[in-house]
Amino acid sequence: MSRVLSDAPAHRSVAATPVRTANRTASFVLHASVLAALMAASSAPTPLYPLYQEHRGLSALAITLVFSAYALALLLALLTTGALSDHLGRRPVLVGALVVVAAAMVLLASADDAGSLIAARVLQGVATGTATSAAGAALLDLEHPRRPGRSALTNSIAPVAGMAAGVLAATLVRFAPAPTVTVYLLLAALFVVQAIAVAFTAETASRRPGALRSLHPKLRVPLTVRRALSAVGAGVVAVWALGGFSSSLGPALVRLVAPDAPQAARGMVFFALSAAAALTVWTLRRAAPLATAIGGCLAVLPAASLTLSGLHGPGLPAIYGGAVLAGIAFGAVSQGALRMILASLDARDRAATLAAYYVLSYLAMSLPAVVAGAATQRYGLGTTAHAYGIAAALLAATALAALAAARRGPSHDHLR
């Protein structure tokens, strides 16, 4: 990951328009819906991968390349445009990014081979990376003084709820005419509506100089955030890697253990994971973040074990049970990590810090999935799944050791 840079000096800024209390809730809901819609669009192709494989001849490696092209483009955007809204304001960055992601949806609707799918997903990744940190930072800007923690909770639950909704919508649309067209056109229309709505909201961030300089690839993370990331980083990598496996190779795993299962069942593995993650975030919203992260890491081992057992007899129940447990781990670690990271964050570092968190997350989601796709071609999906599960369990064990040290260390009292 890029070298972590210290805080930049303060600049004179142009003040944001104050957000009236009456409009705060509406703006908050709008920005939460933007974050959820972006993640819904990211997961919508998952149930459609079997269609691409069967009707367009895409291999498992091609599917992981399509999936990872999106994630890697998103990473590049986070590294370059992740802090842009800290300088230009949330509104112009979000409006521009939403228009671009709507165009990406139109391109996905017309894609008919691996090359065009990858090109459309790259454009989507760039726009989503730009919009994600801006929307998440806007939620922090709109934090209600009487409801502390609402922004951190929403930043945790909106992405996983959105991913679950995207999978479910794409699965249902499979039964409509032209399923690989309909879902993307619906999403394109949604993004256009959201762009128009955001254009009429009040700006929540003060503008300040340095926008061009902020485009240089870097991560700026405050000292307190670095401590939190060092404690929980391996756990974040473990759960996002499990999410990447379920999203890209989950349908192929279902096909391996249950060749006669209906096509709709193949894409629902990732729905089980993301829906369980969303429910876990909500259930644990008042739990201590450090304990939540520890519990999530502990859930990784049984999640991996149950999933792998599906290859040795139990079949689909074990695959789906493992996905639910992985979702519980995902929700617990993600929620605990974000609350630890955002606990003492200055307003001027919001977008940049969220960008750093998502860089780590999407690296963990994309790179292992690419390696797994290539390994599947050479060693088979069963062998690859076993190696993947063992690696995730080792990462979770590493995170547990770091979190245990954080619990004992007096310098980490703010993480508890």
Automatic annotation (TrEMBL):
It is found in: Cell membrane. It is a multi-pass membrane protein. One of its GO terms (cellular component) is plasma membrane. Residues 25-416 form the Major facilitator superfamily (MFS) profile domain. This is Predicted arabinose efflux permease, MFS family. One of its GO terms (molecular function) is transmembrane transporter activity. Keywords: Cell membrane, Membrane, Transmembrane, Transmembrane helix, Transport. It comes from the Bacteria. Its main location: membrane. It comes from Streptoalloteichus hindustanus. The chain crosses the membrane at residues 28-52, 58-81, 93-111, 117-140, 152-175, 181-202, 223-243, 263-284, 291-312, 318-342, 354-375, 387-406. Pfam families: MFS_1 (PF07690). InterPro entries: MFS, MFS_dom, MFS_trans_sf, MFS_Transporters, Sugar_transporter_CS.
